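Standup notes
- DV: blocked on the single-chain target, sequence here:
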Amino acid sequence: MAKSTIARTASAEIEISRSRFVATAHRIGSLDELGGLVRAARRAHPDARHVCSAGVAGPLGEASRSNDDGEPAGTAGAPILSAIAGRELTDAAVLVVRWFGGVKLGTGGLVRAYGGIAAEALDAAGRLARVPASELIGTVAIADAPRIEHALRSAGHEPALHYREHDAVLRCVIQDAELPAAEALLAQLGVAARAQGGLLLEVTP
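- DV (later): unblocked, structure below
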C-alpha cells in the first residue's frame, strides 16, 4: 500500500541555548528537488550557519537522502530523516536552518533538536492518506449532464464534465472501496461508465 504524504508546506521554530532552529516541511515529487530547496533556503537565510535536510520519496518511501551540512555526522540529517520515516510518510522533505548561538549542544542535544523540530514541522503540515482509486468515464447527453453531476456531488464525489458538440464526457475519480456503489449510482442514472484503475487518491485520514 502507498504511504501517506503531507498535506501542505508548514514550519516550526525553536530556540535552544541561543541557537535558533527553523524547520520547514515540503511536498516533493522526487529527491532531485532537495537541492533546489536547500539553495533557496540558503538564499533566504544567508546569515545561517547550517541548512540541514532530509527527504523520502517514492510510493513506498523506497528512496531517501539526508545531509548534515557541517554538523557532526549523524546529528542532523539522520534525525530529520527519522522524523519523516517514523511517521511513515513519503514524497516529503524537511529542511532545518540553524543559527548558531555560541553554545555547543553536544551530540545528543543536536539529535534531539533537529529531530524534534522536524517532527513539529511535519505535524503542522498535516497528513493525506493515499488510497487505490479508479476513474469512471462515461458519455452523457448534454441535457442530462447537470442532473447527473448533481447526483454524483450529492453522493460525495467530484465529477468533471467535458462538453462536446452533441454530448458530454463524464470523468470521476473514485476510491476503489467506493467503486461498486458509484457504478450502481451511475447505472441508476442511465450512464454506462467504464472504470480505469491503477490510480491513487489523496484523502484526509
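- Follow-up: The radius of gyration is 23 Å.
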